[in-house]
Amino acid sequence: MHIRHLTAENFRNLQISLAELSPGINILYGDNAQGKTNFLEAVYFCALGRPLRADHCRELIPIGGQTAQARAVFSHFTIHAHVEQNRSKCVKSISLDRVPIKNTRELFGRVPIVSFSPEDLRLIKAGPAERRRFMDIEICQLSPVYYQELREYHRALRQRNHLLKTLQKEKNQLDSLCVWDAQLVQHGLKVMRTREKFVDRISSIARAIHGEITQGKEKLTLEYKPGVSDPESFATALDKHRQRDITLGSTSVGAHRDDVLFTLQGISARSFGSQGQQRTAALSVKLAEIELMGSRTGTSPILLLDDVFSELDAGRQAFLLSQVQDVQTLLTCTGLELTKGIKEHRIIHIKNGKIM
Q1: What is the residue-wise DSSP string for 219-274?
Q2: By the 8 A CB rule, do 46 and 15 touch?
Q3: What distance in Å separates the CA atoms of residue 317 and residue 236, rounded to the nearest whole number?
Q4: Residue 341 pLDDT more than 70?
Q5: Contacts of 139 (CB under 8 A, 6+ apart)
Q6: Cα→Cα distances 116→121, 263, 301, 337, Å
Q7: Residue 93, φ and ψ in degrees, nearest 5
Q8: What is the pLDDT of residues 121-143, one digit of tens each?
Q9: Which residues pair with 330 in a beta bridge?
């Protein structure tokens, strides 16, 4: 799987840009704020139907503009993504070989993709939400069923939270809470079991990669930490915290509160690991994603590296490059010094939102 061409029009600061890409390593270079990250954003948006860094699709539209679009020609098909601001509503439309798709979940698994940025290097020391996001994005690409269960879980969570706020004033609707409790338990346990299997698998792969980077001096382990583990304990916890949840107007237990624990030699990497150790652990996990996705889908994913090399020392840079020689890679940088360590690559210069 690789991307052959990308066309972006009014996509953030990208104007009308057409780029032909190599199936190997592609280096997007230029000064800061020229459009390099936006180029990666366009690729990611076509692949998964969701923004890479933006919180909302409307952020993909330039200031003062009404539309943004990108077209990606992959090895076996073409995806066109279009976003339009219609009054107060932002409308997203995506087509696969000119056939509109009804739901973005239809894209999952078609274009396996892994992104890596300086924000991902903070995967370990960031809050639990960042680690849950990491799990959910990767698992959704591997399992459309998981995506559906996750959607149903969050739908039930929103309904329960809305009811909790209502119960602060209208106590007569208390019986309705049991309906959403049952939905949370049903879908939440499926989400948690899938997450646990994913973390176990990626932990095994990352441990081997981390051992290679550190020459066997450190042992990395990832452990999934759910708040509950079975239907009885989940239901009991919801019942136990019911009054507190009503007071706060939000649900305090469930899959939306889970975390992943990173340990080095059995000690928390978040609390006691040095910055270098945390970055090495994050790098190991990202490389493990590539291997896991390749083994599960039968094809190497496309790798997006956004200004990662500026955050890594020479040793980690060299190791990363050695691991991605057979993966289509799009990496951004402000200089071309690192091209000395790459045998075959294509250079794309981006300036003022244009491909030079």
Answers
A1: -EEEEEE-S--SHHHHHHHHHHTHHHHHHHTS--SSGGG-EEEEEETTEEHHHH--
A2: no
A3: 49
A4: no
A5: 146, 194, 195, 198
A6: 8, 21, 13, 20
A7: -135, 140
A8: 889 999 999 999 999 999 999 99
A9: 26, 304
